[in-house]
Amino acid sequence: MNLMDKIGLFGPADAAALVLLFPAWVLTGWMIEHPWKNRPAMSSLMAQYRREWMRQLVTRQPRIFDSQILATLRQGASFFASATMIAIGGVFALLGNAERLVGVATDLTLDAAPAVVWEAKILAILIFLANAFLKFVWSHRLFGYCAVIMAAVPNDPDDPLAHPRAAKAADINITATRGFNRGLRSLYFALAAAAWLLGAYVLIGATLFTVLVLLRREFASQSRVALCRDDDAMGHL
Q1: What is the pLDDT averaged over residues 116-130?
Q2: pTM flag (> 0.85)
């Protein structure tokens, strides 16, 4: 079976679902990272608090609290990187035994397509998982860089290097978090891609649902409302 024969195993609905899936992944990330000026995303609001965190770091003594927060962030990135690696291993194991997946699909009265079709659907999941793993690993490394820069911030707030180094730490911290969030979005879309195993139309529905969930959490969630609440008003509660 040549390449064209394999492509012919997929219908127009499958092509439409893939055309929706990958652009939706890219465009959703772009919308979150480049929001409207009058409606910032949760990620943008939290970036402001991360900069404020590093400004407070300059005068906080001792800085054990800050190191504990950063250690928690690194542990989160490490956990997701490890979990994603395990998921990738499971996907590779499934790729090596696609015939059993065909048998399960037949038992469940799903599409009795050749093994190559199921392998292609599993590869779509693998693409998102691999991207998530790379993002989590890089995020973990950047949090490590941030820790080193934070340790290099002079203890004397009047030192001319104190605030510039704190600003550098904030930039690295924000970049690390951006990579972490990209990894999480890849996991969301990996789950959506798994819906392709149930059919092209299910994949389309899962993709649209994933986009709505992500956009709602970034632009219309209760946590965003709390972040946008004025700090002065909160002081009178």
Answers
A1: 89
A2: yes
